[in-house]
Amino acid sequence: MADIAHGKKGADMAIASAETPPVSWRPFAEDAAGADALRRRIMDKLLHNVGKPPTAASERDWFVATALAVRDAVVGPWLDSTRRAAETGAKQVHYLSLEFLTGRLLSDAMGNLGLTGAVQEALAAVGVDAERLQEQEPDPALGNGGLGRLAACFMESMATLGIPAVGYGIRYEHGLFRQAFEDGEQIELPDDWLALGNPWEFARPEVAYTVGFGGEVRISEDAEGRARRVWEPAETLSAVAYDMPVIGGGGRHAATLRLWSARAGSPLHLEEFNRGDHVGALRDRVRLEAISRVLYPGDESPEGRELRLRQQFFFVTASLQDMLHRHLGLFGDARTLPDKAAVQLNDTHPALAVAELMRLLVDVHGMGWDEAWRTTVATVSYTNHTLMPEALETWPVPLMERLLPRHMEIIYRLNATHLEQVRERGLGDDAALAAASLIDEGHGRRVRMGHLAFVGSHAVNGVSALHTGLLGKTVFGDLDAVYPGRISNKTNGVTFRRWLHRANPGLTRLLVDALGPHVLRDGEALAGLAKHADDRGFQAAFAAQRRARKEALARFIADRAGVAVDPEALLDVQVKRIHEYKRQLLNILHAVATWHAVRDEPGRDWVPRVKLLAGKAAPGYRMAKHIIRLAHDVARTVNADPAVAGRLKLVFPPNYGVSLAELIIPAADLSEQISTAGMEASGTGNMKLALNGALTIGTLDGANVEIRQRVGAENFFLFGLTTEEVEARRARGLAAHDAVSASPTLARVLEDVGSGAFSPGDPHRYRGLVDALVERDPFMVAVDFDGYCAQQEAVDALWRDPARWWRMAVMNTAGVGWFSSDRTVAEYAAGIWRVPAGGA
């Protein structure tokens, strides 16, 4: 299927075209003259783009005008970057991700261009508060959690390092749901982030590709008499491009985030409309365009599962068609694709790229099968983000055969060749073949997308040292034996420009004063902070900037959650997606144990503590939503109890996202990274919190292992079973009777929870949760409870010794400079993509 309305020299100038003209651009200077020029530019945008005079402009109007003015400063480096890539024939990275959790973009663009001060001054001159104005920008609802935030960090780092890159995803109209609470229960509301428009995007209606589903595959002859397979879809729609420039640190380079929107071929059936069937006339359009309506539609129904598969193929085929169109326009030969393009699959969601690239090369571009396979493998690489088999997507074969019949033919043929290689390796017994097959024959016949991504990639990477080591032993053990050397590690990182420089300007100023401005460009320069760790004056300054952030957070909590918290209290933070393996339940049970202890000894000198949890549960994940409700029920009881007043609070602010994280993370004293060992691939919240000086209480899971190594074991509160001990415990059985019997504290906590102490109106609400935990504890909540409580007591003891606490906080910031996404991306560039990294 060819693209529609996309000529060889079309208007897709924002990514790469040899015809892109040179652009001369100098950003506004950070001085009075620059601020004055920027003020005039903002006023012009307000008048001519927003259509409002200053006297009638709302805060939203001022935000749009400011964003458009700053966007003007981004366009020059963006077009320069794409022109240089085209002129030099540079290899380009194509990053395929179902999520891009970018957060608000104005602060990123201003910071990376060096315009923050000029914008503030320009707005102040017309009586507009720049900080309040930035709150008018919604978080683009394009992701769920760590996966999407990592993708956003990588795009910004690729731009910073001057790596030509396009990020491909879906322009979800509603994205992930907006979270609210009613009586402690999570309520999912549409997140209408596009309702007022998006000033950062450029619509590209002329960039559109045909996407097909269903139909049949027939055999025809080409001009040379050779038989070829032709897929004739039963229905088609268009993927239409929207581009957002991603400016890198220093403002010299920019990458492109290209998002696809689904458009039906016909807007309505006019005949039906004229007959009076106004709803029916739009039925097909609504059904087809549902693909880009919502991120992760509920998959409890067959229709929901089919929509998810449609989403994945939709963005994969549009992205690969776009890549090939550009490649052929610049280089003319699909056989050179591995030399000029790298396709990175961010998790299993884009795994259909393996089969689709084969289809495009063989069926559309006439390449021979073997050459197409060599080209595909040499072009594609795959990042795995999970060790949980249930999270490695599989799709029912009947659904795949109905929706993507040609792709199933390709997968069957690839599987036959792959299994022959398994036999050649001497691993051809029935059990080995079944484990290595791309088709799981034991669970209703399903296509294993993780296996497909692995077999179709030249490089497969994990995202922390522990995770990568386990990949070759667990979920991909059989494949690693067939394709040795394919797995490598690329430990995740985060962009310091957002998660330190912008989120925590007070700490950033302190770091620059202590280490010099080069610390803004070189994250590993943070190591020099260690020599200040014992300086009492520096400790006091470090504590003062933390106090300021806690005061700002306290105001937010009072406003949004209606709970008054003391900024002097120890702020204990667990912010992440709600999942049983992340063990928010363990944290809540500790809150109950602390409540008991304070009530038992009211005269003791307790360390005041605020426990803050935040995160969303997937709409269909009942246990995760039950845990959220338990947190609220416990909070309601604890926060209203005068016996613990001022000594313990529990808060759960709604709708956790990037902007809320930017408020919470710089204020945190204690970082809860307490997942069951061997289950968290990496984590990036652990890096952000440690970067801002929070101390970590955690298990030897994911990147916690490397964080502990780098900040020093003495600066980390370690507890819990190791990965090997978890496996041994599971081998003995999952019942937790012994752990509960051995812990009077835990037994008392579970009795209170199970008997309705926190849900008096519904005393049996949590009986099932407690019984299930005792009978089957796969996430080791009961087993690790006493060890966790012991380390929390160590936390309290340390908090009473401010000199030791702040020394450890400084050492955490000093030790995590390595966890920069610039370092991670540079490792991908050198070890997987084979592209040079320049730098701002």
From TrEMBL:
Keywords: Carbohydrate metabolism, Glycosyltransferase, Pyridoxal phosphate, Transferase
Gene3D superfamilies per record: Glycogen Phosphorylase B (3.40.50.2000)
EC number assigned by the record: 2.4.1.1
Reactions catalysed: [(1->4)-alpha-D-glucosyl](n) + phosphate = [(1->4)-alpha-D-glucosyl](n-1) + alpha-D-glucose 1-phosphate
Cofactor(s) this protein cannot do without: pyridoxal 5'-phosphate
Keyword Electron transport tagged: no
NCBIfam families per the UniProt record, alphabetical: P_ylase
The family this protein is said to belong to: Belongs to the glycogen phosphorylase family.
Protein name: Alpha-1,4 glucan phosphorylase
Source organism of this protein record: Craurococcus roseus
